[in-house]
Amino acid sequence: MRILLVSDSSNLPKLISSVSGLNPSYMEALTNGESPASVDKLLILRGSLTNDCWVELASERAKGFDLVALPSTRDMREIAPRLSVRLGIPYISGVTQASLEDGRVRASRLCFGGRGIELLSASLPSVLSFDLSGFEPSMGSPKSREELEPACEQRVRVLERREKASEVDLSKAEVIVSVGRGLRRKEDLEMIRELASLLRAEIACTRPISADLKWLPEERHVGMTGVRVRPRLYLALGISGQIQHVVGFRDAETVVAVNTDAEAPIGEVSDYFVVADLYEFVPRLIEALRR
Q1: What is the rounded CA–CA span in Å between residue 77 and residue 109?
Q2: Would the pLDDT of 148 be above 90?
Q3: Which of 11, 49, 197, 263 is spaced 20 to 30 A from 159 at the CA atom?
């Protein structure tokens, strides 16, 4: 199988891992910078690239390949379906695992907001975009390397791009203490901060805490429209367990939830579910940790 990888350089090692199960006989990567990529050919595009350029260049290179694979990043989610239309081949988005069967590609992806798995099949060639959150980088060196100066017409130009200043990267946190609407007042965050300090944890929250009440910045919002985390421990305090939030921590190793409602949905996705008021639970836990 011949696979064309279309990706920014930072996501390329994980994208290689995502297609390794397809046993490719030849892999070529179209990317925008140096990358430790174990591919047969690495094509580095120089200059400022718009999505129009990516579509133009990738559609030219895709001829003769059985599969075009991209990461499910914001820009690539726009590029992938445009490639599919341009090439006239099937497209499957958000793939978490792919295999071959009877000359077709079989792909699984999450559905029902992360509570289920959907299995799809498509003819070859196809375009697949991969959810890379569950893949480790595959490091190596390309067998050959080439640089290209794209000459495509840029109908949209990037005038400025600035990285947003951030005080925390929850995706790297090993322990997270997260709060929901069970927290009654903003002032009570001091109690949560003390607990987080004792646990050497980062503080996270549900969307209402950050977007509606503005008690914590958006970068601490875990969920479908927020950050997705993979800590060793996720301590959920006063969180009901709406699916939009659960999607954000579904890859946590251990989930401990505290809620006064014994029927709260978060009980179904927790390893340990404590039916208690966080205003009784947290002070006792702080006291125990201080000993």
Answers
A1: 15
A2: no
A3: 11
Question: Hey, what amino acid is at 65?
Answer: F
Q: Helices 278-290 and 189-199, interaxial angle, to 10°?
A: 40
Closest C-alpha among 126, 130, 82, 123 to residue 109 = 130
Q: How many helices (H) and strands (E) does the chain have?
A: 7, 14
Residue that is written with structure tokens 């890859």 in the block = 251
What is the C-alpha to C-alpha distance for residues 242 and 223, in angstroms, rounded to an integer? 9
Cα-based angle 139, 140, 145 (whole degrees, multiple of 5) = 125
Q: Residue 149, Cα to own-chain centre: how many angstroms?
A: 30
Mean pLDDT of 156-169: 77
d(CA 22, CA 67): 10
Residue 42 DSSP SS3: strand
Measured CA to CA in angstroms, residue 113 lies from 21, 105, 162, 200, 225 at distances of 26, 23, 31, 30, 11
For 174-227, what is each residue's pLDDT tens digit? Answer: 999 999 999 999 999 999 999 999 999 999 999 999 999 999 999 999 998 889
| Mean pLDDT (whole number) for 146-156 | 80
Residue 255 host element (H or E): strand 254-259
pTM of the full structure? 0.65
